[in-house]
């Protein structure tokens, strides 16, 4: 039996090679289907006037056919200068095009149909010049690089406008369908096109990597749809399987198979017209400066090979720039340092590259991270230490040559730690989520620590909040898996069934004493036992421990 299994392995590998694309397509389409279902639910609620748990901007976007995208971080203005060396080389041959948008405009070639779908999208953009200015300004550090890459591949320059439709040019953007980054890759498609996703790093938010991945994907789709860019763009949004089926259905019925006659999801029907409307505005609007923030047609950033992991605060210090600005240029890094397993690169302002490279060369590899010498105590574990020092079990294990998970009390371990307080890494994933979770969305904040078996659906029913809001408050999508131990915040206006409109609620922390019980504490503060267990996620079958801290919501009008 074992021999038969071994003999079948090469055949299995061959079959896997042939089936890989099909499997990826199925996974991608499943995730994209979930995304479109979420969008449809938002639209339905907006049309029915049920907007109690939906932002007005979400409704406006949903009506225009776009899944609302969240922007979890504030705008970061980065001082960027054009590459003087490039400018000096071009002195003898003056650069006629000084703005990248002009460079794009001069190479647009898609035919713009005169139809209602394009007109509606064009009117929306024209009616929101402030939005256009804000979005196109975000493109400043990245647009030259994106346009350069599109030109190298001899692809349509209309694709340089796609990040406006996808993410409003925000590399930190995420949607309720699990899409992330400037090019809005869902996890499966990101992996399919080489975008690494892990604890330290998410290539979907790395503008350099994601741009390569997006253009690879679009090239693949363009070939799949026999050179039809509108079909390729529709498939980028909703999945190639969906568009292929729509084309096949129309062909079978004897109908036109062009994009405008395909039966596609609402968002996809608006997605392509949005891109065409933007191209039309750029090409034909007289007062372009009202909509397109001017961006110098010169490289303003440069990729630097750093060779190994480095603390982002140290890298910012070497580059003589704020950590927030460095992280804004390198949004793929989730934590306080780059990924130990790569990529080993940073995107820097061109004027910072020379000094940074020199200082980096003078910095020994073991000085690129800050270290602590931790003495193992009883009760310590690798997982506990990883949480404490904001690193991973694998890192601690590798550095200290540990096999397995056993550590011995009294031993000393070397652990890499952040150079500065975590607040200094404002754009790291943890800090972005913490800031998002602390943003008030109700009168009272509850905390729930995920346990095995929890789902957004079950928790939304338990706490009587919408599933979509629960996910949004925690920087997640409703389809995201919940990992045990993850902290979720829940915002509610009413924390107890006994609470009335006249109640004045205050929060206190109670320390359990010897002899205390849930019933005794509930009676003392005139609250329900069921409320205490919900507020503190308690197991009623387990005894309270002296010294244990409990969160209590007290109605001061009753005490």
Range of strand content:
5-15%
Number of helices: 23
The main pleated sheet reads as: 2 strands, antiparallel
What is the number of beta strands?
10
Mean of residue pLDDT values: 83
The low-confidence parts are: 1-19
Oligomer: single chain
Q: What is the gyration radius calculated from CA atoms?
A: 27 Å
Q: Looking at the structure, what is the overall shape? A: globular
Characterise this structure.
This protein has 559 residues and is mainly alpha-helical. The protein is 45% helix and 9% strand. It has 23 helices and ten strands. The strands form five sheets. It has a two-stranded antiparallel ribbon. Strands 3-4 form a two-stranded antiparallel ribbon. Helix 1 packs across helix 2, helix 11 (229-238) packs across helix 12 and helix 11 packs across helix 13 (266-284). The model is unreliable at 1-19 (pLDDT under 50).
């Amino acid at each position: 039996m074992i021999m038969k299994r071994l003999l079948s392995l090469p055949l299995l590998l061959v079959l896997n090679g042939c089936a890989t694309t099909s499997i990826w397509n199925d996974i991608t389409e499943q995730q994209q289907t979930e995304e479109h279902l979420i969008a449809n639910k938002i639209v339905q609620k907006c049309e029915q006037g049920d907007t109690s748990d939906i932002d007005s901007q979400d409704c406006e976007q949903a009506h225009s056919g776009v899944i609302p995208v969240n922007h979890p971080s504030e705008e970061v203005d980065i001082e960027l200068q054009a590459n003087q060396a490039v400018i000096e080389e071009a002195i003898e041959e003056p650069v006629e095009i000084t703005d990248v948008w002009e460079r794009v405009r001069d190479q647009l070639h898609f035919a713009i149909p005169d139809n209602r779908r394009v007109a509606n999208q064009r009117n929306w953009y024209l009616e929101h010049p402030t939005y256009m200015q804000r979005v196109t300004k975000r493109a400043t550090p990245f647009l030259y690089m994106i346009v350069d890459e599109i030109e190298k591949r001899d692809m349509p320059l209309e694709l340089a406008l796609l990040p406006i439709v996808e993410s409003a040019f925000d590399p930190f953007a995420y949607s309720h369908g699990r899409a992330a980054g400037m090019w809005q890759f869902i996890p499966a498609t990101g992996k399919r096109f080489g975008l690494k996703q892990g604890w330290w790093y998410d290539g979907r938010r790395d503008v350099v990597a994601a741009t390569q991945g997006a253009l690879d994907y679009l090239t693949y789709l363009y070939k799949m749809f026999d050179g039809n860019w509108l079909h390729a763009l529709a498939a980028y949004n909703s999945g190639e399987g969906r568009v292929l089926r729509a084309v096949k259905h129309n062909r079978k019925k004897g109908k036109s198979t062009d994009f405008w006659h395909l039966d596609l999801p609402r968002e996809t029907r608006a997605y392509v017209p949005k891109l065409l409307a933007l191209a039309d505005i750029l090409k034909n609007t007289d007062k372009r400066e009202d909509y397109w923030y001017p961006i110098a047609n010169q490289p303003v950033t440069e990729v630097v090979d750093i060779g190994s992991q480095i603390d982002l605060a140290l890298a910012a210090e070497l580059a003589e720039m704020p950590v927030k600005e460095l992280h804004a240029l390198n949004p793929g890094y989730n934590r306080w340092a780059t990924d130990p397993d790569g990529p080993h690169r940073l995107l820097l302002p061109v004027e910072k590259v020379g000094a940074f490279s020199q200082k980096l060369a003078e910095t020994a590899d073991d000085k690129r991270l800050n270290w602590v010498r931790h003495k193992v105590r009883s009760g310590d574990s690798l997982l506990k230490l990883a949480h404490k020092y904001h690193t991973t079990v694998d890192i601690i294990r590798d550095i200290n040559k540990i096999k397995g998970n056993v550590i011995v009390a009294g031993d000393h371990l070397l652990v890499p730690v952040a150079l500065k307080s975590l607040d200094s890494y404002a754009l790291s994933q943890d800090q972005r989520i913490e800031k998002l979770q602390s943003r008030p969305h109700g009168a009272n904040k509850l905390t729930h620590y995920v346990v095995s078996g929890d789902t957004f659906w079950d928790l939304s029913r338990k706490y009587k909040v919408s599933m979509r809001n629960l996910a949004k408050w925690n920087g997640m999508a409703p389809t995201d898996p919940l990992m045990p131990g993850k902290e979720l915040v829940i915002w509610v206006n009413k924390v107890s069934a006994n609470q009335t409109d006249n109640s004045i609620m205050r929060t206190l922390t109670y320390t359990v004493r010897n002899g205390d019980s849930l019933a005794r504490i509930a009676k003392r503060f005139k609250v329900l036992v069921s409320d205490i267990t919900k507020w503190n996620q308690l197991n009623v079958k387990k005894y309270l421990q002296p010294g244990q801290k409990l969160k209590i919501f007290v109605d001061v009008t009753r005490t």
